[in-house]
Amino acid sequence: MKRISKLPFKGTAEQEQLLKAWLAENGHKPGAAMAALQKAQEIYGYLPIEVQRMVAEGVNRPLEEIYGISTFYAQFSLSPKGKYKIAVCLGTACYVKGSGKILAKLEEKLGIKNGDCTEDGEFSLEASRCIGACGLAPVFTINEDVYGRVKEDGSELDGILAKYKA
Amino acid sequence: MFRSHIMVCGGTGCTSSGSKKIIEAFNKEIAAAGINEEVKVIQTGCFGLCALGPIVVVYPEGIFYSMVEEKDVKEIVEEHLVKGRPVTRLIYDETVQGETITSLNDTRFYKKQQRIALRNCGRIDPDNIEEYIAYDGYAALGKALTEMTPDEVIKCVLDSGLRGRGGGGFPTGRKWALGAMNHADQKYVACNADEGDPGAFMDRSILEGDPHAVIEAMAIAGYAIGATKGFVYIRAEYPIAVERLQRAIDQAREYGLLGKNIFGTDFEFDMEIKLGAGAFVCGEETALINSIEGNRGEPKPRPPFPAQKGIFGKPTVLNNVETYANIPQIILNGPEFLNTIGTEKSKGTKVFALGGKINNTGLVEVPMGTTLRTVVEEIGGGIPNGGTFKAAQTGGPSGGCIPASLIDTPIDYDNLVAIGSMMGSGGLIVMDETTCMVDIAKFFLEFTVEESCGKCTPCRVGTKRLLELLDKITSGNGELEDLDKIEKLCNFIKEDSQCGLGQCAPNPVLSTLKYFRDEYVAHVVDKKCPAGVCKDLMQYKIVADKCKGCTACKRACPVGAISGNVKEPHVIDQAKCIKCGACVATCKFGAIIKE
Ligand SMILES: Cc1cc2nc3c(=O)[nH]c(=O)nc-3n(C[C@H](O)[C@H](O)[C@H](O)COP(=O)(O)O)c2cc1C
Ligand code: SF4
Ligand code: SF4
Ligand code: FES
Which pLDDT score is estimated for B97? Predict the structure, then answer.
């Protein structure tokens, strides 16, 4: 099940213009819905219903179909992400090496559950699948930074998180 | 002309461990040493030995540096490249014997491998089409277009014995023949690069390291079946692969290897990337087609098969990335190139993403029929920290495990199915005695529950009920009859689900139950997890004899579950303990045990 954010929509006119321009150019192509949602998520960071509505209009398909697509694929998020997006790899290789425990430790430390964002909007936490760095398992990422061979006991986590705390 | 080439791995694994910075450092140091006219730095695809990344290989000597850090670069440049003295301390130790440095191909990791699909990974710069061409690139396409008829191409692939590497193992030549047979105004060739197995990265690595091989093969397939357009379906989450493939497509167009009148013939072919968005079921061919068309990726009943009615209703031949990566070599060298390698019914090689409790994590390519023992003990370098091999899991969430007693099984399609697993796309995860088999079964089932598209009931509801039964067992509430219930439910899901996702979802459960029934029984009857993984079935205890009463653990416990006076044995209140393990790490006297 996807978490749907209750936060009010705060899109800007600029973002809307970007999306609408893309839709005007590509919306009519066959199979455009997926690419449109990917573009929209790139612009807004997530897919609130207001954005889905623009996409539906732009690719000329009913909103319920667009909603169906947004909820089907793991990549699409209906909640905003934190300024620092933490993704713990729960791929098999990482799991066997204890990444499940690391996820639990991070939940504890941040006081949020997998899939949530901290109230101040700083950190969000999610599980990902194999990121292709199994040689470094267990692995997690914070935005573009990759942390590998993380100790199962979580002793390094405070130090790592501190780097991102203001 | 350069006198030396420095190959730095730019695969996802090494990029994650900082290879980009190393490339920058090399360029800087080489310029500083004034040898930038003599030495060239090249970013390659994956060398395979990801566990030792970032990897740097210096040619012409072929010296293999492992775990290189940014601060080591200056030394390599000044010592090795300027003075000609390799930096021994950084060289992969298996290639150093006293004073001499031996060939990489003689190391245990590479010796028994045979690289066909991965032949260019780590050897060329994937961003430079000329390097691909220098190693016979696009020669196979030229040969097919100018010397062979489409039927001859299909016959060559058929005779090679190549079977699909995406999991099912369907003969590729037969699929192409079906595609050629169906007539239509438009046909498509498609490449499945979804790679949904949660612990696998071989297809992605091929696209990162040798994208032109896949482009060339798809053009050959287009010629064979009469298609002029190709699609590659790949996840947006694999950015490096997407980027390099796009660059490769652009270069191929520029060189006239995609587009109209290829090699001066009237054959035309072009291709496009379609980005997936992360759904395991989209690896299934009919679901993938739905997704390319911009819909929810739900499977459709077959027939009609994609070769009859595929993308936008047109005949479509869909193959896996690794399947395609084999094609150019087969066309160039004839069917014998492949059908002389492997076992009777499985020809050629297979790439595996080796991971888990194994020393040499990485990508390996071995001839079909290689035993699991060879892969684990020789190539993989055995289990870390003196652990013992317990089982290997192949086929990801659709496969099963191979227990230690079957470690001498030659790996091929049919043997794996016979022992209750499957080849799958090539994830191979090694487990040792600290892995709980019930927990692993649960791990895969959680994955399938999440990924089930929900279209049919046996899969949507069945897998959920199955997970609940496993949960019951790992939380210590299981009863013996639950094991029979699990078996029945598994068989029902297998028989009645619509697509391969549901049909194969019970495999991890059935195979662990078959080979590790004792472990299930221990959870159910003794309420114990022998591997010490299932939290509800274990306790942390302080051994009074060993405890010095230093109070360190008491301070470390986040919930105040530990009590005791200074210099007296401490105790853990089991009702309060959340089993975080924080105390174990703080005790300097090894007084806290898990049981
Ligand atoms: C649930 C499910 C997931 C699959 N995932 C993949 C995948 O990630 N990659 C892949 O190549 N084939 C996958 N397949 C197999 C494809 O349906 C198809 O058989 C394959 O891509 C055909 O190519 P091949 O003949 O070259 O193997 C999957 C099948 C099922 C049922
Ligand atoms: S078996 Fe599962 S994934 Fe396949 S169609 Fe049925 S519900 Fe969907
Ligand atoms: S840390 Fe170890 S020795 Fe110290 S009080 Fe705890 S159990 Fe005893
Ligand atoms: S399983 Fe975590 S990076 Fe591959």
Answer: 77
Evaluate if residue A126 carries a pLDDT over 80: yes
C-beta atoms of A153 and B295 within 8 A: no
ipTM: 0.83
- Which residues in chain B (5-44) have CB-CB distances under 8 A to chain A? 11-13, 16-17
Asked if B404 and B389 touch (Cβ cutoff 8 Å), the reply is yes
Substitution site in A94, A103, A146, A152 for ligand 4 pocket (most atoms within 8 Å of beta carbon): A94
The mean pLDDT value for A31-55 works out to 93
d(CA B326, CA B331): 9
The whole model's pTM is what?
0.90
Does residue B586 form part of some domain?
A: yes
Q: Are residues B86 and B55 in the same domain?
A: yes
pLDDT for B466 equals 97
Q: Which helix (H) or strand (E) holds A94?
A: helix A92-96
Q: Quick one: B310 and B192 in the same domain?
A: yes
Q: Are B463 and B444 in contact (CB under 8 A)?
A: no
Per CB-CB distance under 8 Å, the chain A contacts of B279 are 72-74
Shared domain check, B86 and B9: yes
Go through chain A and tell me how many residues it has.
Answer: 166
Cβ of A148 under 8 Å from any chain B Cβ? yes
A18 close to ligand 4 (CB < 6 Angstrom): no
Q: Is A91 exposed, middle or buried (0-12, 13-18, 19+ CB in 10 A)?
A: buried
* B65, part of any domain: yes
B542 Cβ inside 6 Å of ligand 3: yes
The model's pLDDT over A154-166, given as tens digits with 9 standing for 90+, comes to: 889 999 999 998 7
Return the domain boundaries, chain A.
13-72, 84-165
One domain for residues B486 and B452? yes
Choosing from B370, B402, B432, the residue where a domain stops is B432
- Domain spanning A84-165: CATH superfamily: Glutaredoxin (3.40.30.10)
CATH classification at residue B98? 3.40.30.10
Q: What is the mean pLDDT of chain B?
A: 93
Q: Walk across the sheet containing A145-147 and list its strands.
A: A123-128, A84-89, A140-142, A145-147
Contact with chain A for residue B85, Cβ under 8 A: no
Same domain assignment for residues B157 and B204: yes
Report the pLDDT averaged over residues B366-378: 96
CATH number, domain at B230? 3.40.50.11540
Q: Are residues B42 and B91 in the same domain?
A: yes
Same domain, B98 and B167: no
Considering only residues 235 to 254 of chain B, which have any Cβ-Cβ distance to chain A shorter than 8 Å? 235-238
B362 to chain A, minimum CA–CA distance in Å?
A: 6
Q: Name the percent of chain B lying above pLDDT 90.
A: 82
Reading phi first (left if > 0) and then psi (alpha if -120 to 50, else beta), residue A64 is in alpha
Are A35 and A22 within 8 A, CB to CB?
no
| Residue closest to A76 by CA, chosen among A104, A31, A113, A37 | A37
Q: What is the pLDDT of residue A129?
A: 84
Question: Which stretch of A32-41, B92-101, B529-538 has the lowest confidence by average pLDDT?
Answer: B92-101
Q: For residue B168, how far is its CA from the centre of ligand 1 (angstroms)?
A: 7
Report the alpha-carbon distance of residue B327 to residue B347 in Å, rounded: 13
Does residue B111 lie within any of the structural domains?
no
In this predicted model, what pLDDT tens digit does every residue of A61-73 receive, in sequence order? 999 999 999 999 9
CB within 8 Å: B17 and A96: no
- Do the chains contact at A136 and B53, CB–CB below 8 Å? yes
Q: Do B277 and A148 touch (CB under 8 A)?
A: no
Of B339, B357, B380, the one marking the end of a domain is: B339
**Shared domain check, B134 and B214:** yes
Residue B53 included in any domain: yes
Instruction: Say what the pLDDT of residue B493 is.
Output: 97
Q: How many domains does chain B have?
A: 5
- Least confidently predicted of A124-133, B60-69, B347-356, B454-463: A124-133
At residue A79, the pLDDT reads 83
> What pLDDT is stored for residue B42 in this prediction?
94
CA A54/CA A21 separation, integer angstroms = 11
Query: Is the minimum distance from the CB of B297 to ligand 2 under 6 angstroms?
Result: no
> With 70 as the cut, is the pLDDT of residue B175 above it?
yes
**B503 Cα: distance to centroid of ligand 2 (angstroms):** 8
| Domain with B424 in it | 349-432
